[in-house]
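For this section, I looked closely at the sequence of one protein beside the tokens encoding its backbone, which the following lines show:
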Amino acid sequence: MGFLWELFQQRRLAEANNKAADAQQAARSAESLASRFDGQIRQLEQENDRLTLAVMAIAEILREQFHVSQDAIEAKMRDIDIRDGALDGKVKRSGKLCGACQRVNGSKRTACLYCGESLPTNSFLFPGS
């Protein structure tokens, strides 16, 4: 009877060790994923800062050199915002049309998925240009 009990206990210990090893692997995977997301967040924050600077510069130039009022700038922002059907402070990204095969590609593609032709590049200020 003692021999069977010992086998039973060894099996339970092996199962517990396997579960612990699985948990450690899951923790390492989660840590790696979190680190990758942290890097992506930092990149997005840098891009946001760059875009904020650009918008601030443009708004100041419009006010100082062309005497465009803050109200006019904000009204244009609302006009642009509503173009996608929702006044939500967001701009819907549209696809890029390939000049060669006339198919629509994703907005971030640089070459046509279908024919390989170069797609127009978007400026960060003028998407779709």
Observations:
- Residues 2-66 form the longest helix (65 residues).
